Amino acid sequence: MNQQISRLAVAGLVLITSLIVGSTYWQAWAAPSLADRQDNAIKVVAQFAIKRGVIYAGDGVTKLAVNRRQRVSDQTFYFRRYPLRGLTSHAVGYSTRARARTGLERSRNDYLTGANANLSTVLDTTLDDLRGKTIEGNDVITTIRWRAQKVAIEAFGGQCGAAAAIEPSTGKVLVLASSPGFDPNLVEKNFGAIQRGRGACPVAPLLNRATSGLFIPGSTFKVITAAAALDSGRYTPESTFVDPGYCIEYGQRVNNYDTTSPFGRINFSQAMQNSVNSSFCEMGKELGPDVILDYARRFGFYEDPPIDLPGDERAPSGLYEKGRLLPESQQGRADPGRLAFGQERMLVTPLQMAMVAGAVANRGVVMEPHLTDRVRAPDKSIVTRIEPEEMRRAIKEETAGQLASMMESVVSGGTGTAAQISGVRVAGKTGTAETGRAGRNTAWFIAFAPVDRPRIAIAVVLQNQSGTGGSVAAPVAKQIMEALLRLPSNSER
Amino acid sequence: MSARTRELLSLVVVGTIVGSAFTSVYIARQEVVSTESLSYAFFFLGLYVAAHIVTRIAVPHADPYLLPMAGFLTGIGLTEIYRLNEDEAFRQGLWIVIGLIAFAGTLLALRRDYRRLESYKYLFGLGALVLLVLPAMPIIGKTVNGARLWVELGPMRFQPGEFAKIFLIIFLAGYLREKREVLAQVRLKDLGPLLLIWGGAMAVLVMTNDLGGGLLYFGIFLAMLYVATAQVWFVAAGAAMFVGGAALVYTQIGRVAERVRMWLDPWSDPDGGGYQTIQSIYAIANGHFGGTGFGQGTFTDADGNQLIPYVSTDFIYSALAQELGLVGIAAFLLVYMLFAARGFRIALLAQDGFSKLLAVGLTFCFTLQTFIIVGGILRIIPLTGITLPFVSYGGSSVVANFMLLAGLLLVSNRANARSGA
């Protein structure tokens, strides 16, 4: 019988060997992909056992996200609380058990949970891990100026809209407001109520309109057309146009905003100051869609704005067809006349338009926008500081100067007079995208100030308006700029 | 060095390991655990020293490594149960005491000659049958977690199936020893008993809804039949019949079909049928290479709810795999392998047919049961809820496994005594 026993023994040992192989598969081979799965409750638990870093406003004092310590059975968990409620809900986002993370809570999760790896921190966290000590995350100090942010949210008063303000020379995002907002403290328990929405504009409160809301730019796009016209050398600020109140394109009339009083013979600056569609239509026909869109690309169109927010909370600006960006090979078909004044399926985000204003203010150079100023370890030492990063030069310095004075004339005596701030030179451009239905206009204002030494570039959009960009959006932009200019710059602190 | 001295030294090593395990649970969870927990380790070592004294008296020549390995497995199992649920650990401790009493009792009662059991083989066969049918009886039978495997007598609740398998092995060892020459000729009329036992395994499967049990009993039967007759095609035919029968059951019994579906794709129903498997897989994967360490695994969610149902019984392996990591769990499985290897060695060294068949049956039972539960957890085969020998929380299982261990030591003692070792 011994031969059979030996064979059976081999079979038995093979069975147990297969168990070792099976364990190796799950613990070595499959483990990384299992750890990334959304429904892995163990990883969720691990995240909440970490004392997450605090998120601060730009003043380095005001807390935007803090921890709420809670004992559950025999473990200590750190859940999030947002002291300023809905004020910075889109930029900061939320971190909850029931929902995935959003905003900076997601994009800076590695820092906030202390998982950012360099050799010494890895060693420290590994030792802490062995000791069973609570892991402490790093604090994130943002660039957000919370008082100005508050002014922005209050100025919207529940209307649908968004505002983005950046520091042109550095790309620091000072205000990133999206209305309607939501209270991130309610996400865990009462997500349904948030989704249903409340107030004058109950549409999609979770959407960050400032970075991923797509709007028809209307006449604010004329800044890009003008940049293309001047920078390419085909036009000068003194180039003249004759305005009959409309422009003929493909044998059809394309009307001005107001057709009753044509401007007649005007120069480029006057066309900009009064936002004359027919002149820009002529320019567009002359330049063609490729040149205009090439300049749009230089300002950052057709790519996700490089802001430190999660990818699905950012959207590229550009020509859209059926919800998708029109591929470059198709753009030659675009109607250049309408494109020149921001119609023709062109959709943009407020952040992108703030970047356009910022580039004009920053002598033609686009800076990468960022919400994180610095990351600080629990022992208060600086882990990393986000340095200003040039995205690219969009236009020549000379062109930027010409555009700046044109835009200043818009505020001093054109369509954007409502944005005047006493004692401060403001440059801006209005935009009113008509949808053909009353009370459905999209009102825009983009601006920068002070013109001689710009500290703010801003874009404000309001949806479902009966007024124009100059009458509705410009006053909001003015309030935010005033709030920002009155505060000392946070860079010294 | 005598066999018993080696056993004692090995027990001291095991005691040190188990003591360290308890200490690390204590350090990791000192907020919830008191220093009294360390008394478990001392109590535990004392118990095994007592068992060791019994082996000195009853089976002086027996294999010296089986008892320490059983001690290692029960010790690590108890540590993990203690870490998961203190109350269960206390009860498990009591069961280990009862198990060791049964172990000592078996050794002392059969120390002269266990082979007289052979004359009662039909009684054991009948006993196995009765034990298997008990849970299906009205009033005393009880269904837990969908399988009807329990008998409840007043405050006592036990799984007679755990004892039935030992009775079945004794019966088969006696029966096959007697009939092996006849069976080896492979005449059709001799296949009767084979068909009978196949039918029995199927009946048990259907009555108790227990795929794992059916597989275990039938696997033991085929293995012993093969050892007795050397007819591979018996095994092949038997396996084919089992697969055929199981396929039939699969189409007829929804619960079995569900188990197979959840084996192939647990993520098709992540909150229902696949929940347990998925949570268990996450738990194992979370151990990675080195494990989280004793007492530091995650078994509850952020709301304090248990993540894996039945973690201390059916899924104790997942808990251990997370806390010990691949390194630890592989070492743990190697102990099982070593235990099986020693068992098969005893069967090889035994001189008479009954002893060989008994040892091989007991060893294969231990091996196959380990494979069925761990293989199910690791998704090598469909999951069936049976206990992990010596480790899972459960009284019947602990007591039955100590009786199995006693059986192996008795065979070993006789073989070694006669060969003069």
Could you characterize the architecture of this molecule?
The complex is a heterodimer of chains A (493) and B (421). Chain A is an alpha+beta fold. Chain A has helices spanning 2-29, 31-35, 41-48, 89-92, 103-107, 109-112, 119-131, 146-156, 191-196, 209-212, 222-231, 268-273, 277-287, 289-298, 336-340, 350-361, 397-413, 469-486, and strands at 55-56, 63-72, 75-81, 139-142, 161-166, 173-179, 240-243, 246-249, 252-255, 264-267, 318-321, 324-325, 346-347, 365-367, 372-376, 382-385, 390-393, 427-433, 441-449, 456-465. Helices cover 36% and strands 21% of the residues of chain A. Chain A is elongated. By secondary structure, chain B is mostly helical. Helices cover 70% and strands 3% of the residues of chain B. Chain B has 14 helices and three strands. Chain B has helices at residues 3-28, 37-58, 66-84, 86-110, 121-133, 160-184, 192-208, 211-229, 232-252, 254-264, 275-286, 316-349, 353-377, 395-418, and strands spanning 141-144, 147-153, 156-158. In chain B, strands 1-2-3 form a three-stranded antiparallel sheet, with no helix packed on it. In chain B, strand 1 (141-144) and strand 2 (147-153) form a beta hairpin. In chain B, helix 8 (211-229) packs antiparallel against helix 13. Chain B starts with a helix and ends with a helix. At the A-B interface, helix 1, helix 2 and helix 3 of A face helix 8, helix 11, helix 12 and helix 13 of B.
